[in-house]
């Protein structure tokens, strides 16, 4: 049939098998700052590579707010437009995950499993990743380290904060940790900690690369040079961290591997194949660039 150029009719196959061969991908929001985050695009690339090899397609949610997202996912479930889901974030008491559990839809999580036992999840050890990054900075000579984290009670952010604080506590240095809710918040805190303060931090860690990009803009506005006046580091090595001015030291969390593993695993679940794990941790590595140096 391949010699004749035959292409199977997916609609007909769906009617016969009651399977769509489609995976639903649920992102926490489709707002520009989420869509344009390189972590999301790299994870999605990994998922789509796995699905393409195994004959599956994907369907992404497009809602920007939580209420619309809830109704969008519920419609996808009730219309049976997908066979299963990958949840691309991890949130305590998440109404979306409660919905998936209520309808008993196959799903797994890219991130931590916070709400139900025995849910398959693919993640990094973000506590250890932050611990290792803070240790690396300490060995460069830093003793006053500021940690900036994005708002929202998402597991990945909370775990990175925990790892930072754990290392600071272990070596008995201050563990200043600030939640940033807006660009104005960021400007105010940088003014407070780096302009008005008598003793500014020697390095700032951001919990996410998008927050890191905003930080670089604010430091530029205040004419603070990196790494001469202050140093910076973040998570998720990407095109942005490599091509920032200056290039940013970062933790490579291997989002393409996270996505590829998640894509293959959800297909295995749908095919009733044996899964040998409930949690799979993808390794991380520190990538040293111009933004940090020994002091």
TrEMBL record:
Keyword set, alphabetical order: DNA-binding, Transcription, Transcription regulation
Residue ranges of every copy of the Transcriptional regulator LacI/GalR-like sensor domain listed in the record: 135-292
Pfam families noted in UniProt: Peripla_BP_3 (PF13377)
Keyword Lipoprotein attributed: no
UniProt protein name: Transcriptional regulator LacI/GalR-like sensor domain-containing protein
GO MF entry, a single one: transcription cis-regulatory region binding
Record has Transcription regulation as a keyword: yes
SUPFAM superfamilies: Periplasmic binding protein-like I
């Amino acid at each position: 049939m391949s010699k004749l150029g035959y292409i199977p009719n997916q609609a007909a196959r769906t009617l016969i098998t009651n399977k769509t061969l489609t995976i639903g991908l649920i992102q926490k929001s489709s707002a520009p700052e989420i869509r344009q985050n390189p972590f999301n695009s790299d994870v999605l690339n990994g998922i789509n590579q796995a699905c393409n090899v195994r004959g599956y397609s994907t369907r992404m949610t497009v809602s920007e707010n939580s209420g619309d997202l809830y109704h969008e996912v519920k419609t996808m479930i009730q219309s049976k437009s997908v066979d299963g889901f990958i949840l691309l974030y991890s949130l305590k008491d998440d109404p979306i995950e409660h919905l998936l559990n209520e309808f008993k839809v196959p799903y797994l999580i890219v991130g931590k499993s916070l709400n139900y036992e025995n849910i398959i999840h693919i993640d990094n050890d973000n506590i250890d990743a932050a611990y290792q990054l803070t240790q690396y900075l300490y060995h460069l000579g830093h003793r006053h380290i500021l940690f900036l984290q994005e708002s929202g009670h998402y597991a990945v952010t909370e775990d990175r904060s925990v790892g930072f604080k754990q290392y600071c506590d272990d070596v008995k240095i201050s563990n200043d940790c600030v939640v940033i809710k807006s660009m104005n918040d960021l400007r105010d805190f940088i003014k407070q900690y780096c302009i008005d303060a008598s003793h500014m931090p020697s390095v700032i860690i951001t919990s996410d690369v998008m927050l890191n990009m905003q930080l670089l803009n604010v430091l530029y506005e205040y004419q603070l040079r990196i790494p001469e006046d202050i140093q910076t580091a973040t998570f998720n090595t990407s095109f942005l961290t490599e091509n920032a001015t200056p290039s940013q030291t970062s933790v490579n969390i291997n989002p393409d591997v996270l996505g590829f593993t998640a894509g293959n695993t959800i297909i295995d679940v749908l095919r009733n194949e044996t899964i040998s794990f409930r949690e799979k941790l993808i390794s991380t590595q520190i990538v040293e660039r111009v933004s940090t140096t020994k002091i």
